[in-house]
Specification:
This protein has 17 helices and twelve strands. The strands form four sheets. The chain has a five-stranded mixed β-sheet. The protein has a three-stranded antiparallel β-sheet with strand order 4-12-9. Strands 6-7 form a two-stranded antiparallel ribbon. The relative contact order is 0.17. Bound molecules: protoporphyrin IX containing FE (HEM).
């Protein structure tokens, strides 16, 4: 079983600055699909699931693979786990209850209504380039649209958005010195261990959220925050700590993920000018397929973790109660057994049941419909505005074993 896999540490943040170690994951899928993995930072180790089928199995069997004890690689004690719990670190029935309350503005029916707003914002973002031909795609396009849309949904003033998103970046980017002063594996963050992402920045987000909620209690408005304050049909409501945690989760989970997936799309258009050239003639269904292939291709959240609830066996490996199990979405989405020509970008790939949003799980990304809409509309508007997009200098990858992304992508475009 043990293989001649090259010695590349899949738990190290630095590994992903260079790129995704595709050959390591391919080797694990072929030779050791349920692999015991040591952690370079002294963590207690975990099982790596790298096959599509196994990732799906673990996602579906929440009675065996729990989210309650953490969804990141990091080991947390009981006090930390409790203090930092969001809906992501819950199992049913607790999770189902919360999800029912917060899901209302994110259902497909609700999201269809946002298309006009997303399109207006996408046009505005492109217009703000003022005909510039050379710029950083991440900063000027991919960061802008998700940020503005989140601001619109939450009913927040435009002038607060940049500040807010930089706080979300500091949380999700807690392993990249470009985004935070509190780099988890380079500074002592033990003082902040009870805060999301072990970062004091979370306090600023909580304070902001508290004020925003108080304002809406006095003067209800027509936004998602006001909607979340309203009781459900059966009278259920959320307390303030839960609301604040959810606010921080949206700012952190809703921005970077969409941004880096959009950037991966731009990279595809650079690498395949024929796909970008074909975009204006694609109908909505075709662009939707393209978007899903970009989502698979990017697999921006590379993994999520679960914890074994009771001793169980998977492909002959004995998983013990309490063991950490990591679902490597970045590997599952490139599993040849599920995706023919997995290493090829196929714009009309169908079927394409990728796990970029955590397919078929109770925790399926809440923002999936919104993210798909933002990606589709932005790609459509880019193709209306430009005939071509080219690389214009070296790009830079994000330092993280969790989020795969390009944080700087200098481009040159030709306007129509
Ligand atoms: C391309 C963009 C995105 C990607 C790749 C992505 C990925 C994911 C994944 C893989 C999960 C599942 C976590 C798990 O298995 O434990 C998830 C959950 C979640 N996502 Fe996203 N996400 C994206 C955009 C968004 C947006 C735009 C929002 C909100 C505005 C959002 C909010 C959430 C929330 C609240 C959860 C937790 C759901 C739950 O626990 O029930 N995401 N996301």
């Amino acid at each position: 079983m043990p293989s001649d896999s090259p010695v590349i540490d899949i738990t190290s943040h630095d590994t992903y600055v260079v790129g995704i170690p595709r050959e390591v994951f391919a080797d694990l899928r072929a030779n050791n699909p349920v692999a015991w993995t040591e952690e370079s930072d002294g963590g207690r180790g975990f099982w790596s699931l790298t096959k599509y089928e196994d990732v799906l199995f673990a996602s579906r069997h929440t009675e065996l693979f729990s989210s309650r004890l953490g969804i990141r690689l990091e080991d947390m004690d009981e006090e930390e786990t409790e203090a930092r719990r969001t809906m992501m670190e819950m199992d049913s029935p607790e999770h189902t209850r919360l999800r029912r309350i917060v899901a209302r503005p994110f259902t497909p029916r609700a999201v269809v209504e946002y298309e006009e707003a997303v399109r207006d914002l996408a046009k505005e973002v492109l217009a703000n380039l003022n005909g510039k031909t050379e710029f950083d795609f991440v900063k000027d396009i991919a960061r802008e649209l998700p940020m503005r849309m989140l601001g619109r949904l939450l009913g927040l003033p435009d002038e607060d958005l940049d500040w807010l998103v930089s706080k979300g970046d500091a949380l999700i980017g807690n392993s990249d010195p470009d985004f935070t002063d509190y780099v988890v594996d380079q500074t002592d963050t033990s003082e902040y261990r009870l805060l999301p992402f072990r970062s004091p920045v979370a306090i600023e987000l909580f304070e902001y959220a508290q004020l925003a909620l108080e304002e809406r209690r006095v003067t209800p408005t027509n936004d998602v925050l006001t909607a979340l304050l309203a009781p459900t049909k059966d009278g259920d409501t959320l307390d303030d700590p839960t609301l604040k945690n959810f606010f921080a989760l949206m700012v952190a989970a809703g921005n970077d993920t969409t941004r880096y997936t959009m950037t991966a799309g731009a990279q595809v258009f650079i690498d395949h000018p024929e796909i970008f050239a074909a975009l204006p003639d694609m109908d909505e269904a075709q662009v939707k397929l393209l978007v899903d292939e970009v989502l698979r291709w990017a697999t921006t959240t590379m993994h999520f973790r679960r914890t074994v609830v009771e001793d169980t066996e998977l492909r002959g490996q004995k998983l013990k109660k309490g063991d950490k199990v990591v679902l490597w979405y970045i590997s599952a989405n490139f599993d040849e057994e599920q995706f023919p020509d997995a290493e090829k970008f196929i714009p009309d790939r169908s079927p394409n049941d990728h796990v970029a949003f955590g397919l078929h799980s109770a925790h399926l990304c809440l923002g999936a419909h919104l993210a798909r809409l933002e990606l589709r509309v932005m790609f459509e508007e880019m193709a209306k505005a430009w005939t071509k997009i080219e690389a214009n200098g070296p790009s830079e990858r994000f330092r993280s074993n969790f989020i795969s992304g390009t944080k700087k992508l200098p481009v040159k475009v030709s306007w129509r």
